[in-house]
């Protein structure tokens, strides 16, 4: 071997010749090669053993996992199966078998899914093909009924394409959940909701119709209507009320009715809140009718007839309803009627009283004595005048009663005192007719009635009994307490009333046929007035009579 | 002799009253309308006034009111003789201070004359004779 010799400047300045023992080098090299070969072999064996150990471990884990997974899939309540690219069913878990109504999964594994009726009929085959092309899906699938007896079912499907190590799709994982029950429930809920909606719709329509009817009714009501809640706050006014009171509902709803509707009594005195009939109604008192004056906004007061009725719900006052009517015209008519009556009575009575007093004066002989013939004539004139006076009195009484003017009172009245007063008044007539009047017994009862009206009735009946009795006869008055009634009976032994005419005896201007022959003074109004007065005090008049045997007139009074 | 003022617009009633009162020994003056009453009162103060209600010029209610408000005449008994016979009219007259009230057609003139006598003898008491 030659080796170059270099100078200071690294330039070759010479060549040296060297000699090496090749046998020694070759032996050394072989020794080294052997060592290296053994070392490599050992390392490889060790690495192999290590890897084997690791892979075995890994395999065991994978197997364990795989077993675990298989167990989960087997036990899963959700149907799970896989299909290979060519449509072969690779796995099929029991849940899926149940869902598909297949006895066992083994019946289907290995078969081509596209050939199975179940999948074709439900359209699942199309979905599976799509899935195998790489399109994952989640879809509700309707499974047609397999037989006439079975019902169709619903399933929710997930399709997930599975890829191999190269990323190529090699199968499709399908998961299915039976949602038939849920669908049925949903359907039931939908039906129920629909039914409910229909019912609500119908009810709403009914309510709207009823509301429209009520509104139309209230609007057409000729009377004012006000409604309040239990606290007396306004909740409704109909158009008539709005117009009469000149109020707008929207401005007054929610306010206290007694504040909004100002009222005074008929004597123009303010009515205290506690006496307002609305507040009385709100205490649950039954309906009360009253006349008073309501205020029309900016236009003074006008007379009204008002009724307030409590609205009871479950025995509790929930509010009140007031109905009122403008009675201005009635009041004017009432006044006109009163004025006419007053004037008519005055104008009719004045000449009668003049004749009466002049005849009385003449009879007194102030202007000299009268001859018997003159006296006779004068007496006749006087009778005619008295009859006329009685007729006018009765007719005005009828007009007054028919106009409803006479107001009734309620007072505790002693029947004994009452009878005494009647007898006192009638004594003169009885004496002049020579008819005795007496009470049959002394018993005293207390009766709550209008004493003056009852006295008028008794006077009328006793007067009638006297007038239609012949002289020397007797008229008796008898009072009897019955459980429900107090009965006054006036008995005479006069001419009686023919049976066929007894029904008409209380009619206006009716006079019994035999009365006309007996006495000509009656106006035919006496018993009519008595029966009208009786009605006013809640009494009832009746007759027991037979022609020629006298009458018993009965007054039944509560 | 007692003096009685008759206030009445109907001649025939004046005649009857006057004849009866004079025959009883009273002196009588007559007013035929509501204003004449006060002229007569000024001429001679009566012991009693018989007062009709419906009168020309001034009605009996106003006359009565004026009499009861006058210091000179308020003490004089006033008996109303009227053919107005409604309860409201009687009540109003009594409230205004009438001593008695007769509805003429319903009472003999003798009853009126006796009532006048009662008042003039100082025995008259307020009672409505209707």
From TrEMBL, chain B:
GO terms classed as biological process: phosphorelay signal transduction system
Entry keyword annotation includes Phosphoprotein: yes
Gene3D superfamilies named in the record: 3.40.50.2300
Superkingdom assignment: Bacteria
Domain Response regulatory span(s) in chain numbering: 3-119
InterPro entries per UniProt: Bact_response_regulator, CheY-like_superfamily, Sig_transdc_resp-reg_receiver
SMART domains: REC
Pfam family, one: Response_reg
Alphabetical keyword list: Phosphoprotein
4-aspartylphosphate: modified positions: 52
Family matches, as CDD domains: REC_OmpR
Name listed for the protein in its UniProt record: Response regulator receiver protein
Organism: Candidatus Nomurabacteria bacterium GW2011_GWB1_44_12
Lineage of origin: Bacteria, Candidatus Nomuraibacteriota
């Amino acid at each position: 071997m030659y080796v170059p010799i270099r100078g200071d400047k690294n330039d070759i300045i010479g060549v040296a010749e060297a000699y090496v023992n090749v046998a020694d080098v070759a032996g050394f090299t072989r020794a080294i090669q052997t060592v290296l070969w053994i070392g490599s072999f050992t390392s490889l064996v060790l690495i192999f053993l290590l890897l084997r150990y690791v892979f075995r471990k890994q395999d065991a884990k994978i197997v364990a996992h795989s077993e675990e997974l298989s167990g989960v899939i087997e036990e899963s309540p959700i149907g799970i199966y896989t299909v290979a690219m060519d449509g072969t069913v690779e796995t099929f878990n029991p849940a899926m078998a149940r869902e598909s109504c297949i006895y066992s999964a083994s019946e289907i594994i290995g078969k081509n899914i596209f050939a199975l009726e179940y999948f074709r009929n439900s359209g699942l085959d199309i979905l599976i093909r799509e899935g195998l092309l790489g399109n994952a899906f989640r879809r509700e699938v309707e499974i047609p009924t397999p037989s006439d007896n079975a019902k169709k079912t619903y399933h929710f499907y997930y399709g997930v394409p599975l890829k191999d190590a190269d990323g190529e799709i090699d199968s499709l994982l399908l998961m299915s959940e039976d949602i038939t029950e849920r669908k049925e429930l949903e359907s039931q809920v939908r039906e129920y909701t629909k039914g409910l909606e229909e019912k609500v719709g119908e009810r709403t329509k009914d309510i709207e119709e009823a509301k429209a009817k009520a509104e139309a009714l209230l609007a057409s009501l000729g009377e004012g209507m006000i409604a309040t809640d239990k606290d007396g706050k306004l909740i409704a006014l109909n158009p008539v009320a709005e117009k009469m009171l000149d109020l707008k509902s929207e401005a007054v709803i929610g306010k206290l009715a007694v504040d909004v509707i100002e009222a005074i009594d008929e004597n123009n005195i303010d009515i205290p809140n506690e006496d307002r009939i609305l507040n009385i109604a709100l205490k649950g008192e039954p309906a009360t009718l009253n006349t008073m004056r309501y205020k029309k906004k900016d236009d003074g007061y006008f007379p009204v007839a008002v009724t307030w009725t409590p609205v009871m719900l479950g025995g509790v006052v929930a509010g009140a309803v007031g109905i009122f009517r403008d009675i201005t015209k009635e009041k004017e008519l009432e006044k006109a009627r009163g004025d006419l009556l007053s004037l008519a009575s005055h104008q009719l009575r004045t000449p009668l009283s003049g004749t009466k007093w002049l005849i009385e004066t003449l009879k007194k002989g102030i202007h000299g004595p009268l001859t018997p013939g003159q006296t006779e004539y004068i007496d006749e004139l006087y009778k005619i005048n008295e009859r006329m006076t009685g007729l006018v009195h009765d007719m005005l009484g009828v007009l007054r009663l028919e106009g409803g003017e006479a107001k009734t009172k309620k007072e505790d009245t002693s029947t004994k005192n009452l009878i005494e007063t009647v007898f006192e008044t009638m004594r003169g007539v009885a004496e002049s007719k020579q008819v005795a009047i007496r009470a049959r017994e002394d018993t005293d009862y207390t009766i709550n009635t209008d004493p003056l009206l009852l006295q008028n009735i008794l006077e009328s009946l006793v007067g009638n009994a006297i007038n239609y009795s012949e002289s020397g006869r007797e008229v008796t008055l008898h009072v009897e307490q019955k459980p429900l009634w107090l009965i006054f009976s006036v008995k005479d032994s006069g001419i009686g009333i023919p049976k066929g005419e007894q029904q008409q005896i209380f009619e206006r201007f009716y006079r019994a046929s035999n009365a006309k022959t007996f006495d000509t003074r009656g106006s035919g109004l006496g018993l009519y007035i008595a029966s009208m007065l009786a009605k006013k005090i809640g009494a009832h008049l009746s007759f027991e009579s037979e022609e020629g045997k006298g009458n018993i007139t009965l007054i039944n009074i509560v | 002799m007692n003096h009685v003022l008759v206030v009445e617009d109907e001649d025939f009633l004046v005649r009857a009253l006057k004849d009866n009162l004079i025959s009883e020994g009273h002196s009588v003056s007559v007013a035929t309308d509501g204003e004449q009453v006060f002229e007569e009162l000024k001429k001679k103060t009566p012991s009693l006034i018989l007062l009709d209600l419906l009168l020309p010029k001034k009605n009996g209610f106003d006359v009565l009111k004026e009499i009861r408000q006058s210091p000179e005449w308020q003490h004089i008994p006033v008996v109303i003789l009227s053919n107005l016979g409604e309860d409201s009219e009687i009540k109003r007259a009594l409230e205004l201070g009438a001593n008695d009230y007769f509805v003429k057609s319903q009472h003999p003139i003798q009853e009126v004359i006796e009532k006048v006598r009662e008042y003039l003898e100082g025995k008259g008491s307020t009672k409505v004779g209707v």
